[in-house]
Structures are given as C-alpha cells and as structure tokens.
Design brief:
Length: 541
C-alpha cells in the first residue's frame, strides 16, 4: 500500500550526520531528552535514586520504539548502578522489537544473557520487579525449543499475570496491551487481541493522555480499516506527547492513511523525517526510521494529486548514496526505495507504456525484483501485449521458486502475491476476464477480512478496473464501492467509481465521486486529466 517517500535533500543529511557523529560520538544525547519531548512515564524501581529518572526515560524510549537509544540508556544505568536488575530487564526489552521483527538466534542469546544477569541481581529487587523479569524471561527462555509465536505468547501470558497482580501499575497494563498485539494470531478476522488491548488502553488514555505507550499502542491497535476511525483521537495526541521521537511523529499517519486524510498523513511523515535527520545528525541511533515514514509519504502524495512532489522525491532518492545494510535489514534501503518508486509511480499514474517498459530491478534480499515485473505485467496487460505479460509472469515465478528453495517464508509469500496478480493480468490480456476475477477475488476477500495493507494496488480495485475495461460498468461500480470502504479516498478508486457510475447512467453518483476526488486533491497543482474531467463535469451541474 505504502512505499517510500521524502522530499528533502538526503545528501545533506548524511554529510551532516557523519560530521556530527565524529564530533559527538562519545555523548549520548538521550540524556538531553525530557518528559515534554518523550512523554510522561511513571515506573518506580528499587535501584539507586540517581538512575530513577534515566530509567523512566529509557521506558519512554521503549514506548516510542526508539530501541537503539533505549538500549544505550539501560546500558548506562547498569554501569551507574551495577546492582540494578531492572537495567538488564530494560536491555532485554530493547533487543526485541515487538511489532517489527522476529529476533534471530544471536539476539535471543543476547537477551537470555541479560535475563540471567537480571535474575542474579534479583536479591535487591521487589516482587513487582521480579515479575517483570520473569515475563521477559518467558520470551528468551528455552533457547532453541520455542518458535517466535510461542515465545511471544509465553511473554504475553506472563505479562497478564503482572497486570492482574498489580492492577494499579499502569506500566504493567501498557506492556500487557502491547504483548497482546505482539502475540496476535497471524490470520484473525475477529481482531480479538486488538479489541482486548483497546479495552485496556482506552481506560488509560482517559487517565494518562501524555503517556507515550498508551497513545502509540492505541494507534497500532486500531490500524485496521474496520477500526481506524476509533484511532483518530490517539493519532491526534501521540505526536504532541513525544515530539522528539521520529516514530511518534510518524505513527499518526497509520490512522490518517487508513481513513484517507492525506494532508495529515503528509504532515506527519515530513515531521518524522525531519526529526530523524536531526537526531541522526546528533549521533543518535534510529536513522533507519526515515524509510518507514518515506513509504507512507510517497503513497499520500500519489493519492492527493501531488505527483510533482512524488517526482521530486524520486529524484532525491536516486541521488542518495549507497547505504549498505542498515539495521540488519539485509539490503540497501536506498535501492529498495528507488525500485519501489519506479514501479509504483507509472502504475498509480496509469501510464501503462512506462510501466511495461520498466527495467528489471535488482535489490538482493528483497522482493523488489518480483515487484518490478509485477508492474511491468500490469502495464503490458493494459496494452494487450500478452507475450510480454507471459514473460513477466515467468520471471516472477522464477523469483518465487528461488525464495521457496531458500526457505524464506516472508519473501516467498510476498512474491507469491505478485505472481497471482500477474497471472490475473495475463488472463485479462487474453480476454479471459472471469478467470482474472476468479484469481483476484479470494485475494481481495482475504486482505479485507484481515485488514491487511495491499502492497501495491488493492486487489479489489484491480478487479473493478478489469470490469470497467471489459465494459461492465455496473459490476465495476459495486467493486469500487466495496474497495473504497477499505481504502478510502484512493485517487484511482474514486475516479474509477465515478467513471463506472457515469457509464452506468448514474450521474448523481458520478458527481459525488468526482467531488470527493477534487476535495481529496485540494491544494495540489496537478494537471492530471482525471481531475480536469471531474472539474468539467461538475461545472455542468
């Protein structure tokens, strides 16, 4: 759904960051961050009084997923008070990025070492602190015997005990709510864990509106199209609570994107990237956060008629220096962004010839290779270049088989989605419209039932596009209308619905969608023919 975006000069960032890091590499700037910059956290511990304030700051950093700086904070605490068991709890918590990834064996071993150290120091700890340590021990323990899902569930079960044993401890409630999200079953259309987390967090939000974890985790809880409207208050609040944290500035856009508030989305991510640059220039960790913000920013530009900004962004990304392997991602994020932009831009702009002519991408360790062929297949299919589509399908299939042979489950699944959609477009190019729809419909239904974000174009929007091209406007309108419930204010979704309504002899419906499209693109200088057509028709009302 969302990819990378950013409009400022990256070369300046990296030049400045490198110079600043040389000058200040020995100074931990997290020491300068205050409650007004990170939010308010109350987490009393039995360690030395001198480390109480730094400990609260470390927990606040955890709550904004600023794991790099949180780890530094807890390491400093362990040095300042070698008997502080909770410092090692904090380090172990910093190593596991609960909603981001699954720790590898090396990280598990590191975390387990910290847990063992914390356990050895438990003689001076309170029963409450021992319960926190036992909870994280449930995640890192039994090395090699548990898969990630089992570890996450064991931790959540243990945090539930802490939450129930200490009902007045708001931190226990917040961390338990997060654990419910981290241990959520992969395919649960009932959102049971999310609803349970929301019940806990909403009560706290009324009591502690300045707590960074409460607002943050509410946004994650409601980051589904079926729930997104409920997340708007937290989205409005979080950036105000922790304005120094790049992730806190970005997170509101998860909700804004879900409900189609594009300008709010853009503002959030521009602020996030600016904050990332500032802290990176100070020698602080977390410069990798910018790429997640860019992902959302590019998408918002494309949906709001700001294609000039998107093109400027593409130019800036193309000028970025090589970044090697940032944060253990296994690939150069600069090359990944470049490939994503190149593939998505012509598809969103419906420039089929440009899409079909895309050069293959080569970004090792990602699915950008298959994604570029996905875009080529869609472009060629619209041009009815069936032989070319068939070649693109074969290329994606080869990439997919490679990921299967390497037992890379995540990349195999992503390339499989690219493959299925490319096969649907092959059927379309052959005039087999019903076959194409039959491939896409279960994909659309699964994505919608789980509230997943489509990586590219929503499958249901593809179905609607195919039906419209097949001169079935009434059927297309039904699909567009369904799609807009899950992806509101998408440029091509609104325009497609308007066209389908117009061709179905429903001028009032068409005018309504055209008006929504123009409203969604207010403030842009776009010259897209779709917007000109909308203005002309509405002027005749």
């Amino acid at each position: 759904m969302k990819r990378f975006a950013f409009v400022l000069l990256f070369s300046l960032l990296f030049t400045f960051a490198a110079l600043a890091a040389d000058d200040e590499k020995d100074h931990h700037h997290h020491e300068d961050l205050t409650e007004t910059q990170l939010g308010t956290v109350h987490f009393p511990i039995s360690c030395a009084a001198s480390v109480q304030k730094p400990f609260g700051r470390g927990v606040a950093l955890l709550h904004s997923f600023w794991y790099e700086e949180a780890e530094k904070e807890f390491v400093d605490i362990a040095k300042d008070d070698p008997q502080c068991a909770m410092a090692h709890w904090g380090i172990a918590m910093s190593l596991w990025h609960q909603l981001w990834n699954e720790p590898d064996a090396q990280v598990i071993a590191h975390g387990l070492d910290e847990v063992k150290t914390a356990t050895k120091l438990e003689g001076n700890a309170t029963p409450r602190e021992k319960a926190y340590i036992a909870a994280i021990a449930a995640f890192y323990g039994d090395s090699g015997k548990l898969d990630h899902a089992a570890r996450a569930k064991a931790y959540s079960d243990a945090m539930k005990k802490v939450y129930e044993s200490y009902p007045d401890d708001h931190e226990a409630a917040v961390f338990y709510a997060l654990s419910l999200l981290a241990s959520e079953p992969h395919d649960d259309p009932t959102f049971a864990n999310r609803k349970q987390a929301a019940a806990i967090l909403e009560k706290l939000f009324a009591i502690e509106p300045d707590h960074p974890g409460v607002a943050h985790y509410l946004i994650h809880t409601y980051d589904k199209p079926q729930l997104a409207q409920l997340g708007i208050p937290a989205a409005r609040r979080y950036a105000q609570v922790a304005p120094a944290a790049p992730h806190a500035l970005h997170m509101p856009s998860h909700i804004f994107a879900r409900v189609g508030l594009w300008q709010d989305d853009i503002n959030s991510n521009l602020a996030s990237v600016a904050a990332t640059r500032k802290t990176a220039a100070m020698g602080m960790g977390g410069e990798g956060h910018q790429f997640h913000a860019m992902d959302f920013l590019f998408y918002a530009y494309m949906q709001s008629g700001r294609e000039a900004d998107a093109r400027a962004l593409m130019d800036e990304v193309n000028k970025m220096p090589e970044m090697h392997d940032m944060y253990g991602l296994g690939f150069d994020p600069h090359l990944a962004a470049k490939a994503e932009f190149a593939a998505l831009y012509p598809i969103e702009m419906r420039d089929w010839a440009a899409a079909a002519a895309l050069p293959p991408a080569n970004v090792p360790g990602t699915t950008e290779d298959s994604f570029s062929y996905w875009a080529k297949a869609i472009g060629a299919a619209h041009l009815h270049q069936t032989d070319d589509v068939r070649k693109d399908v074969a290329a994606i299939d080869a990439i997919h088989q490679k990921w299967i042979s390497e037992k890379n489950k995540d990349l195999a699944e992503a390339s499989e989605n690219d493959l299925k959609q490319a096969r649907a477009w092959l059927a379309f190019s052959e005039g087999k419209y019903d076959d194409a729809i039959a491939i896409l419909r279960p994909m659309a239904e699964k994505q919608e039932s789980l509230g997943d974000e489509p990586q590219g174009i929503p499958p249901r929007e593809m179905m609607a596009d195919m039906l419209l091209e097949a001169h079935r406007p009434q059927q297309a309108l039904v699909e567009y209308q369904m799609d807009l419930k899950f992806s509101p204010n998408r440029f091509n979704g609104l325009y497609g619905a308007a066209r389908a309504a117009e061709e179905s002899g429903k001028p009032s419906d068409a005018n309504e969608y055209y008006a929504l499209l123009l409203k969604s693109c207010e403030g842009s200088n776009s010259t897209r023919p779709e917007l000109n057509h909308a203005r002309e028709l509405l002027a005749k009302k």
